[in-house]
């Protein structure tokens, strides 16, 4: 199902989108911020000249509030009247890539091109913390850790996933995707693209964290313990993965530059015994001349988990900039791509 609405208002590519039970908000090039009903009719619009709207968020606690990032500025709107923002925060020093709020919506985190994360206290309307000096490149994604009110995860174009205690500006642990993800032996993007982290998503129950990577992989972490633990990587995308979003505690969707959307069920990974990998698993399988003499156990595990967890794939018409699943009689996905309109696809979960 493709939508027939959502047209004629964006003047450039739609860069970001969010959805609630009642409305959809989208941001794009040329500073366009649009509010729609679920049928695709425009309800309200704001435009910030000379910039792009790079991230949007609908409040789940304050039903009429919309958050939007324009370059390095965060603006807050009332969706009934979006002619003027109700609040403006100018704490970031570079372009904001993603904004996220904690479960109680007391804090908002904004990750930016400087590799920094500004955490804003929304109740006090002031800067709470600046997280920096860990990412060495663009910080592309941020998400709060469910059920752990002082923790969040960030990912960046330095190929790092970082786990923070933001109340103490403390890095709890850090993962380098270059070290964790072995390339699959196929002649495609896995061999040549770096594992930049484009997007992160945490399951509602806090069991999983998934990371969308430029090399086409999706890294899956166990986040039930104090520290993250890598479980396996999934690989159905043939180009960079740009988006990951959970539908439930176990199911999530991914979208990428290959114009493909994939639906995954991580609960199916429990049907197979966990492969215990020694620390030198890769080295143990190599010969003296560096040529593998046996199947790599991690690659075998990743392939097995991909086969069992992949439910379905849906083709789209363009590269996916942003998407968001929502439930309206059935599961659907609102998609922002390189065009100037949104589209909706139904998914069979």
Describe, in plain words, how this protein is organized in 3D:
- The chain is mainly beta.
- The chain is 7% helix and 46% strand.
- It is built from four helices and 27 strands.
- It has helices at residues 177-180, 189-192, 281-284, 297-309; strands at 14-19, 23-28, 32-37, 42-47, 53-58, 65-70, 73-78, 87-89, 96-101, 107-112, 117-121, 126-131, 139-144, 151-156, 160-165, 170-176, 197-202, 208-213, 218-222, 229-234, 241-246, 251-256, 260-265, 310-315, 320-328, 330-337, 342-346.
- The chain has a four-stranded antiparallel beta sheet, with no helix packed on it.
- A hairpin with a 4-residue loop joins β11 and β12 (126-131).
- The longest helix is centred in the C-terminal third of the chain and has 13 residues, at 297-309.
- The chain is globular and about 55 Å long.
- It starts with 13 loop residues before the first strand and ends with a strand.
Short characterization:
The protein has 349 residues and is mainly β.
Q: Main attributes?
A:
349 residues, mainly beta, 27 strands, 7% helix
Fold topology:
Elements: E1 14-19, E2 23-28, E3 32-37, E4 42-47, E5 53-58, E6 65-70, E7 73-78, E8 87-89, E9 96-101, E10 107-112, E11 117-121, E12 126-131, E13 139-144, E14 151-156, E15 160-165, E16 170-176, H1 177-180, H2 189-192, E17 197-202, E18 208-213, E19 218-222, E20 229-234, E21 241-246, E22 251-256, E23 260-265, H3 281-284, H4 297-309, E24 310-315, E25 320-328, E26 330-337, E27 342-346
Antiparallel strand pairs: 1-2, 2-3, 3-4, 5-6, 6-7, 7-8, 9-10, 10-11, 11-12, 13-14, 14-15, 15-16, 17-18, 18-19, 19-20, 21-22, 22-23, 23-24, 25-26, 26-27
């Amino acid at each position: 199902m493709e939508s027939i609405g959502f047209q004629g208002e964006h003047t450039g590519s739609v860069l970001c989108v969010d959805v609630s039970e009642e409305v959809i908000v989208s941001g794009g090039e040329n500073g366009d911020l649009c509010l729609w009903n679920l049928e695709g009719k425009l309800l309200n619009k704001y435009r910030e000249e000379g910039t792009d709207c790079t991230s949007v968020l609908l409040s789940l606690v304050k039903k009429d509030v919309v958050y939007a990032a324009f370059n390095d500025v965060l603006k807050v709107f009332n969706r009934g009247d979006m002619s003027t923002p109700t609040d403006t925060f100018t704490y970031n020093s570079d372009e904001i890539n993603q904004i996220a709020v904690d479960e109680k919506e007391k804090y908002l985190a904004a990750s930016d091109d400087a590799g920094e994360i500004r955490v804003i206290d929304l109740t006090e309307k002031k800067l709470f913390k600046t997280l920096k000096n860990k990412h060495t490149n663009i910080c592309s994604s941020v998400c709060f850790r469910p059920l752990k009110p002082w923790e969040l995860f960030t990912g960046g174009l330095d190929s790092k996933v970082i786990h923070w205690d933001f109340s103490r500006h403390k890095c709890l642990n850090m993962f380098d995707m270059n070290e964790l993800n072995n390339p699959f032996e196929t002649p495609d993007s896995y061999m040549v693209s770096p594992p930049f982290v484009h997007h992160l998503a945490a399951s509602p129950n806090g069991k999983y964290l998934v990371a969308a990577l430029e090399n086409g992989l999706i890294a899956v972490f166990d986040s039930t313990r104090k520290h993250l633990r890598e479980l396996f990587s999934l690989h159905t995308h043939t180009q960079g993965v740009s988006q990951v979003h959970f539908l439930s505690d176990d199911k999530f969707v991914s979208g990428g530059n290959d114009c493909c959307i994939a639906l995954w069920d991580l609960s199916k990974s429990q049907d197979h015994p966990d492969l215990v990998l020694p620390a030198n698993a890769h080295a143990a399988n190599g010969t003296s001349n560096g040529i593998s003499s046996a199947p790599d156990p991690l690659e075998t595990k990743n392939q097995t988990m991909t086969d069992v967890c992949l439910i379905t794939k849906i083709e789209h018409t363009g590269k996916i900039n942003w998407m968001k699943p929502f439930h309206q009689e059935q599961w659907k996905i609102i998609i922002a791509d390189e065009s100037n309109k949104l589209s909706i696809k139904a998914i069979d979960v």
